[in-house]
Prior knowledge:
- One of its GO terms (biological process) is glutathione metabolic process.
- This is GST N-terminal domain-containing protein.
- By secondary structure, this protein is α+β, with helices and mostly antiparallel strands.
- It has two domains: 4-94, Glutaredoxin; 105-241, Up-down Bundle (Glutathione S-transferase Yfyf (Class Pi), Chain A, domain 2), CATH 1.20.1050.
- 52% of the residues lie in helices and 9% in strands.
Amino acid sequence: MLPLVLYDTPSKLPGNNWSPNPAKTRFVLGYKNLPFETVWVEFPDIATKMKEIGASQNKGSDGSDIYTVPVLSDPNTGALITDSWVISEYLDKTYPEKPIFPHNSNGLINAFSAAFSGLSRPAYKFIVLRGSQILNEPSMEYYIRTRQEFFKENIDEFSPEGPKRDAHWEIIEKSSGAMKTWYDKSSGKWLMGDTFSYADILIASGLFCFKRILHEEEWKRICSWNDGKWEKMLEDVEKECNLV
């Protein structure tokens, strides 16, 4: 079997990867034991590279058509897929062993994804701020400029120390409480009881991003919540997906 090719954005961090959406694809590939290699593309080069390989555009948060990562190329089938959700459905259909949408749960997990994304969205500016700080210089300039244009605000005003930052942390902590409630209602280790699914990957991808972009003491703060639930959760998913 030829290795699949994952297009992702690099960083200054060891190992490069940090972004939650490509992380979802990594977790799925690892869980299914599919060989893959990574092509790293800096933010300002994404559109050029995606046009070059013939990838389709995705929908931006403002509804515009834009080129994004992750994109997955499968030389075994000739498929070229954009968007982490579409990639995950493709992988589950094409390589059905060890399903991530068990019992035809695509619709249910899609609804869960929307609910999960909505939890921390009000704190998104803090996440953007921290994300900008771990990027390589070409991507950092592009990332900051485009986010400032989108929010119509200087990045220094996104989440300054003080009341605004405190409010963002309150949102993130409240989100963790909601997630713990979901797991507490499960009869097993995972959200679907003893059955691992893409729902667990969604949460782990967010945690992975936090671990990578936050300052060490900030990540430790999250790890201290809910009796250490989230550090253990991320470790369990990484082990389940053979990414330890």
